[in-house]
TrEMBL record:
Domain of life: Eukaryota
Protein name as catalogued: Uncharacterized protein
Source organism of this protein record: Coccolithus braarudii
Lineage of origin: Eukaryota, Haptista, Haptophyta, Prymnesiophyceae, Coccolithales
Length: 176
């Protein structure tokens, strides 16, 4: 509950119009909806018209953004982190003169503890397979049976995964 109002919380999912402006387009973006699992405490943000998802297991927060001249196919990805949390504001905070009006109206604040970010900001074709970001070569995109790709992101779920708040980017791997 927030300020005495019972609020059932579930997963927070934001689908930008560039990803799925309507339900019929959303159906084409998720090849196997039964292979997409999002826990009730998760936050998912998806942007990009050329983003496809086959298999995703999310328990935490994930943001995926793909520029118009790029494509990303998430074939298999597992993300587990502390995610985002809605925290109720105490009566003393709400009564404070320094508390912004917006927060007084809401009664809560959003705490972004950890999130995984996949940012494709360089033109080209990319895929995530087994938790690894790869750039697909031009040869592979011309020959459908070819699986020629180059790893650029490293494994998310390896023996030593990157920090839960790391950012995968098509132009660089940033670890914060």
């Amino acid at each position: 509950s927030f300020q005495g109002v019972a609020v059932p919380l579930g997963a927070a999912v934001v689908l930008a119009p560039s990803f799925a402006p309507c339900m019929s387009v959303l159906k084409t973006k998720l090849s196997e909806p039964s292979a997409v699992h999002i826990s009730s405490r998760s936050t998912l943000l998806l942007r990009g018209r050329r983003l496809l998802i086959d298999s995703l297991e999310l328990d935490g927060a994930l943001e995926v953004s793909v520029v118009d001249k790029a494509s990303l196919h998430i074939r298999s990805l597992q993300v587990h982190n502390d995610g985002w949390r809605f925290d109720e504001l105490s009566e003393s905070v709400l009564a404070s003169d320094v508390c912004p009006e917006l927060l007084k109206i809401r009664g809560y604040t959003l705490r972004k503890r950890q999130q995984r970010t996949i940012l494709i900001d360089t033109p080209g074709s990319y895929e995530v397979v087994g938790g690894e970001l790869r750039k697909i070569s031009q040869v592979a995109t011309q020959l459908p049976d070819s699986a020629d790709s180059v790893s650029i992101g490293g494994p998310l779920e390896g023996a030593t995964p990157p920090p839960a708040c790391g950012t995968w980017c098509s132009s660089a791997l940033e670890i914060e």
